[in-house]
Amino acid sequence: MLRPYEHPWSVAEIIMDTLEKLYASCRALNRRFPDGNDPFHIMTCLLEERRRLQIGG
Question: Can you tell me the distance from the alpha carbon of 2 to that of 9, in angstroms, rounded to the nearest whole number?
Fold first, then answer.
């Protein structure tokens, strides 16, 4: 097991990686919902799509 100071990634690198993933998710949501980012509208659409995929229709 690696000790904290032997870990190949620093805390700053882990934070930057997490932020890059968050920004990528935000960019994708902005492309998908360009007219605004009302969280209730976004979740409703995503849940409806998931339901359609789940039941196959």
Answer: 11
